[in-house]
Each structure stands twice: as C-alpha cells, then as structure tokens.
Amino acid sequence: MADNALEGLPADSPFAQSLLGPYREALALIEQGDRAPVRGRKECEAAAEAGEPAAVRVGHPADLVDHTFDRVIFGGFVNGFIPTRSMVDEGTLVGSARERALNDDRSLLRLVRERTAERLVLTGFATCPLEAAEQLKLAIARIQLKNGQRLCTIEPSIYLPEMLGPTSSATIE
Predict the structure, then answer these.
(1) Hey, what's the torsion of the CAs at 71, 72, 75, 78, to 10 degrees?
(2) Nearest residue to 168 (alpha-carbon basis) of 94, 107, 109, 81
(3) Of 22, 83, 101, 151, which one has the fewest beta carbons inside 10 Å?
(4) Selection from 13, 19, 10 nearest residue 77 by Cα
(5) Measured at the alpha carbon of residue 24, what is the angle toward residues 22 and 30, in degrees to the nearest 5?
C-alpha cells in the first residue's frame, strides 16, 4: 500500500487524506512497542493470560471492560459516531430517551479514560464525501461543492471538551 493512500479509499479523497496523519501516528506507536504481532481479541486475551508481550487490539470501546491498555487510540471521535446522529439533530431524541443516551455515552467515555494507563489519542476528520457521510450516519454540519464533489463538514464530538478536561491526558489528532 502506498504511503499516501489507505486501502479501500481513493487516494485523492479529502476524507482519506484526513485519516492518514492519525493512521501514520498509530503505526509509529505500534513500531515503538516490542514489535509484537497484531492479534485478534481472543489471541490477545490468551497472550495476556500466558504473560506474553503486549499486542495491538482493535475493538469497540466497550471491549475495554476488565482490561487496561497503555495507549488507546479512539478513532472517529466525531458527531455521528459518538454521539449518534440522532443525539446531535435537535428534536430527534428528546426527554428521558435523550438523557439515557447521554448517560450511556458518558459511561462509555469514562470507561475509556479509566482504562487508559498512559496516553489516549482521539482521532477524527473534518470532511468526507456526502455519500460516505450518509452511509455512516454521520452528523453533517454543512455540505459544499468542491471540484465537483459534494463534501460534508463533520464536527468533532460534542464530548470533546469533557475528554480534554483539565485532568485528562487525552490529545486530539
């Protein structure tokens, strides 16, 4: 794979380009480790139980229950992923349903903070094609036409200030 592209995404896509920086940093963080192989969830758990060196684990934030990691990279920290689009769109989710969703999100984010031992990196992107934004159910802040392509402006998660609070070790990239 070329250094200026991500597999499965067009190299000239602004969306792909916005992901390359965090992707390269994640690779660099992995390289700094003991070069342990990338493993799946079951393999990571078995390796941890056997006392083997650390590995890279990819999963949902809820997978952090009962596990603590030195570095956690939270990809896609944008409105639409966390919180869901229905939380961002005024009037879609109201009353007690909205409160439950807010509490669920905050519990998940608290878990992420508590289960990160050294460094939490929050990644996101500012633009993506309209078709991709709709498929991913992202919260679209603005749509504009650039070079014949309909691009959406995607905003960072509404929870970003909470994650970057005064006692946080999180960074956004």
Answers:
(1) -120
(2) 109
(3) 101
(4) 19
(5) 105
